Structure formats: structure tokens, C-alpha cells
Fold:
Amino acid sequence: MKYLVVGILMGISVPAMAQEIEFSKALAPVAQAMKDNPAAAEKMAKDFLKVYKKDPDAVLALGSAYLTVKNFTKADEMAELVLARSKKDLKAQAEAYILKGDIEAVKDENGNGGGAASNYATAMSLDPKNPTGYMRYASVYRKINPKLVEETYAKLRQEIPNFPIDAEAGHSFFSGNKFDKAFENYAKCNINQLDEGKLVEYLVSAVQLNKYAEALKIANFGGNKFSKNATFAQLGLWSAVETESFAEAEKIALRYLGLEGDKNATDYTYYGKALMGQNKFTEALEKFNKALEVNVEATEPLAKISETYTKMGQEDKALEYSEKYLAKNKNANIIDYANFAQIFVNKAEKGDAANNYAKALSIYDQMVQKFPDYATWTNGIAAGIADKAGKEDLGAAYNQKIVDELGNKSDLNENQKGYLMQALKKLGYYYWGEKNNLDAAKPYYEKLIQLDPNDKNAKAALGIE
Structure:
């Protein structure tokens, strides 16, 4: 398990506790030397201690500097030095145990957190008004014991009512990729009081959870407050498209393109979606093609180009790009193949019906093999296409496949029940209405009446009043 503290401690060059106090300038070159010239750093550290050995904050800051370069022995020496010299200073002792907890956290990145947690717990008991102990303790357990985390936050809130616990909790959960808990805690905050970094985390959490309406609000707020931060514009664009706010998405896209930083294929693809959603097809094609220029390996732009040409009624171009998409995207799903087949259906409605309907049905036959878990749905669509093509016998064959698959199942879910009933109705009509063979139709109506006792055709076929 990687604790929040690991990310914090390994990414700084000067300990956070030393930032705004008198010894920070003296410590900065020592911390840098620990990275660049460890031998020289040791003498510099001794000189630093000669001056600040009576200041527990300075000693602990030096310990944290050692920790950033994973010199655990020296870091722990600094913590022990403070414990030995500050026996009556409970606040200093608490900070020393926080450092010892941090050491254990970094040493045991993939462990169970026991060593770190016990030190943080000691810090909490020594100085209940120090929020760091609570936050570090919660960070250890944020993945494995959410209930304990909530209890820890409750204690912190009781001790320090004005501490921004929800924002800090949101940050902690975000660092552990617990986006649901991060969003939940950030949502409790006054958004006006969140700093830029936490606003970004709040936004990313919303996007990760597909809460696009909320994400759009956060993105607009953050974009107005921190206008140069491209993340708000980028995720605002994505969220606006996902909520089908296409005109707003286009406005955000224009602002986003004016900000510094590279734009990726996904960005241009979303821009294209915003334009396509407003029937600005030519402009949309330009953006999708731009996405392909940015990343020749991108696949979604190919699908969107196909979709755009479909909306423009240019089926041959739509087929060209749909084929490219399916050939390139090894993870294409069943809807992608259904869209491909639908282009042939569209062509059939304009001419050469027999040939194009046959091609559409051949794709559905492939889909049954490629996605067997969706065979019922696939055969149902294929049956409808066959009927539309005037091939009632083939339509009946597809419906029969559904009956064969589901007819004897005793645990049908509602969707399966719906598919089966539809297939039985069509087969009953096929044999009775099309073939004038009531005897052949009756078994289907007998099965149907069990599922729907009020079906009029089934009652009529079976002579039920």
C-alpha cells in the first residue's frame, strides 16, 4: 500500500514545516546537497544542527529532509533527538512521532501500515489539536478501512471544528484513487474556499465517476477563477459534450485552444463532437482529422468521421472509415459493429436493397460469433432487418434462435423475457398469418400465453375467451 505521505514526502526538496519559518533559508542548501552531494551534505547538516539544535521544528525539518532522500537512519535520529530533548513539550513530541510515522510509511510502501499508524496514533494522543497526525493516520487506512477513516475524521472535527477536514479528506482520498470518497468529501466543501489544486482534484473525481453535469459546473467555476489553468477548460469541454451541451462545449473549446500547452487527439475529438452535435459537419470533420494528425494511432476519430458521414448521408465514405476503425481498434464493441451494419441498412433504403441488406445481416451473423453473450439482442435486430428485406423465412429463423436459447430457461430476467415474448409473437404470426398454419403457430402462442396471459393473438389462436 502506498500512503498519501509517500507522495508528499518524495516530491519536495525542502520540508513543508520549514517553509515559512526562520531556519528555512539555512536548511534549503542542506536539503539540496543531500540530493546532489551527500558527502558535503553531512558536514552542512552538522553545522545546521549546531545553530538550531534547541529548536525542535528545525531539527524535525532536517529529519524530513533526510527522509526525502530515504536516509531513514538519520531521519529517525532527528526524531529521537527531539523526543530526548523535548520531554515536556508535547507538541514537539507529537511532531517527532509524525516524522517517525512518515519514515515507516516510506520504508513500508507496500506493507500493512501498522508501524506508521502506531506512530501517528501516538502523535494524536500527545497533541489532539495537531491535524497532521489525524490526516496521516487516515491516509494509512483510506483503502483498507474506510470506516476507521471516517471515525478519525470525526475525532479531528471534534478537536478542531474549524479545520477544513472535508477538503483535506477529499485530497487524501483522491491521492489514493478513491474518487467516490474524494468527490463525496469535496462536495461538502464551500467551493469558494477550495484552492486551485483541490478544485482540480474535485473536477477529476467528478469526471472519473461520470458525473458530467457536476463536473461542468466545477470546470466553469474553476475556469473563471483560474483562467490560465487548462485542465478546467479541457475537462469542461469533455463534460459539456457528455451532457450534450454542444454550443457551450464549442465556446469552451475555443477558449481551451487559446491556452498554453499541447492539445491531444482526445481534445480535438471532443471538439469535433461538439460541432457534430450542432450539425456543423464540415467543421467537425476538420477537427476529427486534426485528431488523427496529432495521434495517428487514435481510433475514436475514425469512428466519429464515419458517424459524421452517416449523418451527412454519405454512406460510402461512412463505410470507408468504419472499416478503418474496426480494422484498427481491436477492442471495438458490439455497438461499433451494429453501427457498421446500420450503414448498409441505410444504403439498402436508398437502393440495391437485396445486396445491402444481405451485407448487414452477414455482419450480425459475425457479431453472434464474436459477442455470444449478446446473441439474443443480435438475433432480434437481425430478425427485424430480414423482415424489412422481405425475407420472412430468414426473419423467422433468427427469431427461432431466440426461442431455442431462452424458451426453456426458468430464470429469465426482464430483458430476456421481453426478447422471448417478441420472438414468440413474431413466430406465431409468421406461421398463422404468413403460412396459414395454425397448428404450427400454436406451440409459440402456448408459450406466449404463459408469459403474457392477456395477449390477444395468443388467446384467439388458442380459442381462449
Notes: The longest helix spans residues 414-434.
